[in-house]
Structure formats: C-alpha cells, structure tokens
Design brief:
alpha+beta; 15 strands; 12 helices; 7-stranded mixed sheet; 8-stranded mixed sheet
Amino acid sequence: MSNHLAACAPGNAPFDVCFGGPDQPHGRLRDLLAERVSAVPPGGAIDWVTYYFRDRRLAAELLRAQQRGVRVSVTVEGRPRVARANDKVLEMLAGLGPGLRVMALPGLPAPPGRAWKPQFHEKLYCFSHPRPLAYIGSFNPSGDDPEDEPEVIAEIGDQDAGHNMLVGIADPELVAALTGHARRLNRRPAGLLYRFSDRANQACNRGPTEIHFWPRLRPHPVAKLLSRLGADARVRIAASHIRSRAAVNVIAGMARRGAAVEVLAEHTARRVPAWVEERLILAGVGFRRLTQPQAVPMHFKLVLVETGDRRYAAFGSFNWTRPSWWLNHEIAAISSDPELYRVLSARWDALNGQQQR
C-alpha cells in the first residue's frame, strides 16, 4: 500500500489499514494520527486511550483541536513500565482539563519477587470527522521530536520506525461502541472489579467483525478460536511479546494437532525468552525472530487463521503474556472480512520475506 491517508482509506472502505516499519516513512502512524486530528472541525470529537504518549507535537495538535472547539478526551496510563516516559506530555495535556484522565490502578497481591500490576495497555483512537473512524492496533505515540531522552527510546524502542499497524474501523455501530468505551474510561476509571461487569465481558458484534475488551472473566477470545483448530488449519502469528506458558501451550497445541503454525517474533529475549523459542520449535512451530539492521521493535499483535474455506484476522493491543491475558486493559478485533484479511496477510508475508532474505 502506498503512503498516507488517500491510500490508507479509499472512498468509503470499511477499514483504514496503515502500517509502520523500516520500509515506511519514519513516523508514518503518528503522522496519520496528526492528520486525523487536524481534520476534525469545531463541534467534532476526538477520544483516545493509549499506554505510552511522549509525542509533544501530537499533544500540541490535540490542544489546538480543543481550542478550536473540538471535544477532546485522552486517557493515558499513569505508571507505564518506563515510569517517567509520559510525564512531559501529561504536563502539556493538563490543558485539556477534565478531558485528561491519567490511570494508575493499584497492584494485586503477588508472590515474592513478582509484580502483578494492571495497566491500561489499550491503543484506541476515535475521530468523529471527516467520517467516524476508530483505530485500534499496536501503535502508541512513544517517540518525540526533538528527542531529548534517548535513554527512554533505547528502553521502549523507536515505535515511529518499528513494525506497527493501526486499523481504522468505519462501521457506525462499532465506532459508536468503541467511542463509548473510550469515553466511559475517561469519565469513570474502571476499578479492579471491572472484569466482573457485563460490559467487560460483552463483545461488540457487527457483520464479520467483533470487538473484545479486557480484563475479563470469560475465556480469551483469540485463544478460544485457536484452541478449536486442527490439521486443516494454517495459522500465522506476529507477536512482540510471548512469555506466558498458557499462551505457549495454545500455540504449541495447534502444531501438535497437525496445524501449520508460523510465528514471527520480536528479536529481544526480554519480550520473547529463549525457552519460548525452544518449546515452540520442539512442538513443530515454524519460529523466526524478525531482526532488522536498525534493531527496531517488532510490535505487531496479529493472528491470521485459515481453516477450510474460512479466514480470520485477529489484531489489537493484546500480548501473549500473563498480565495481558488476566490483568491489563486490552482491546482486540476478530474479523472474517476478506479484504481486511488480504491486506494483513500480504503484510505478514512481506515481513516474512524480509526475514528470510
């Protein structure tokens, strides 16, 4: 796909799919968000939920939008893994007044040496104009320009150059549900009992696409889909984090049942430890780490499923880790839309081709 908005969302297409990566212009996804912000007129609305937010130019665009009469709400994790990462942008966004919500959920009791801290890990960007769109995916605006804290980027990774994607959903009912979700989080923080609510466990369904939220009590929807697959299935996974033994069991279990399973994983051992690689390869999974000369992060969260004549794509903010499955606020979509599947499948194949060269 070519660059920027016209190529990302032709006409009234039901999805607006945009990728970031070393083969794309640097900062393509943050530029997409900036262009979408500037396109919302007075009387419109912008509602965001994100984990990292360090991009001061993008924060300034949101403040300008509010000044011209746009209703702006931003919900941001207050205690990310790199603790001070969001501080400068949060200081700026205090100008949003009640439109800014900084989340900091209390930790849970954990065994010695462990930290069980729920986090707001969603990446959700909703816009009312020029047509209603709600983006979900893997990108959060964690870079800055000029970058005066290179040590933070060294820890987080340069997401403006890394492998990321945002999928804009245009279906009016799904956009309304996602926008409502963002606004509820902004108005009333979801406490630790949120997972027991009907809202946390209820999917939003529309045509070929369903949206799921975490934390939840019901089974992991992506894991549930994969647990039913057998020898007639082909599964391709791009994963930035795989650390949960339960997740490894789901992926390895498909291969043991005869499915053709391929994994493109992040190159760092912190995000995908060596024991994960060993167990998956032993189970018959085609495992490769996506490495680049620039050592940019591979931040995709993508699952592609072919089984019989059916095709599914699952994507969002979720990782294959215990906090992501059980504690964090996450978001994911599962869709059988054939054009969306084609676009995401082509991107996975392109990444796999880069790795094999």
